[in-house]
Amino acid sequence: MKIEQHGKSSASLVMQKKSFFIENDKHVKKQRKIADTYAKQPRRINCKNCNGLLSQDYDFIKDMIEYKICNNCSHLNGANEDTNEFCEAIYTKDSGESYAESYEEESIEDYNRRVSSIYIPKADFLVTALINNGEHPDKLKYLDFGAGSGYFTAALKKIGLTNVFGSEVSKCQVEFGNRMNNSNTLSVHEISNTNKVLQNTDANVVSMIGVLEHLQNPREVMNYIKSNPNVSYLYISVPLFSLSVYLEMSFPNVFHRQLHGGHTHLYTENSLNYMCDEFGFDIIAQWWFGTDIVDLYRDISIIVEKNHASNKLINTFKEMIIPVIDSMQFELDKKHLSSEVHLLLKKK
Ligand SMILES: [Zn+2]
Question: What is the count of structural domains for the chain?
Fold first, then answer.
C-alpha cells in the first residue's frame, strides 16, 4: 500500500518565521540583490528537470528574471543558468556564512525546538513509510545529502536510528551542527565532489530535504543515485510551482520565499513524475503540505501595515485568518496544489 498524507499545522511556521513579517524590507533588498546576480548569468537553454529545449518565449517576469514553463515536462525554469559563480556567491561565500545566516539558530534550545517541530515529523514520515514497505528502519544506513546544520540527521537520531550520516558543502553549518549535537555526524564535501559522495556512499537511504532544487546538475545526481547499488530509497522534499508563485507575482514588495535566490526552478507534480519515470523510481509515499496560505496572510498583513492601517484593523485581519489558515491550506494540499511535497522514492 502506498502512503499519502496531507496537511501540517502552520503554528510553528508563523512563530518561527517572525523575521519575514517584521524585517520584510531587509529580506526584499537581499532578494533583489541575488536576483540581479542571477539575471546576469548566461541563458538557460535546457530544462533543469528533463533536459528538453526551453522555448524562446517566457511565461512571466519577476524581479527582472524571466521564467518559462517547460513544454515537455511542465517544470518551471528561470531563464538563466545557476553557474558556478552564482552558486558560490549564494552558498559558499565566507564558508557559507551568509547563506547559513537564515538557518542558524542562536541557542541550543532554538535548535532543538526546530528539530522537534519541523524535522521530527519528516523523520517520522520516512520511518513509517519504510516500515509500511516491509523494511526494518534500524537495520538501514542513512545519508542526508546537503545536510545543512544537521536538523534532519538530529531528528533521525532522536527517533532512535543510529546509522545516520550527513554531508554538506558549508563548513560553517557542519561545525555548527556538530557542535549543537556534540557529535561528528556531519562532514564537509566540496561542491566539485558532489557526485563522488553519491557514487561512493554505502547508505541504503539517501535523503535530500530541500536540496535537489539547489543542485547545479540534478539530473547527474539522480543518475549517480540510480547507479549506486547500495541505495534503495531516496527521500526528497522539493518546492513546487504553486499558488505562492502567483502571490509573489501579485505582491512584488513582500519577500518571496518560493521562487527566489537558490530556487531558480520549481517542480510540478508532472515534472516529478517525469523524473521518477526517467530515473527508474516509484513514488511509494507522498506528503503534501504547503505554506501558500501563510504566504497569503503575510502578503496582506505587510501591505496593510505599509498602508498605515490601525492596529485594530491589523488585529481584526489576524483574528479572521489565523484560525482558518490550516483548513484553507488543507484544501490545496489534498489536491496536490501545495508549495512543497515530501516523496519517498524506491528504486524499481
Ligand atoms: Zn522539462
Answer: 1
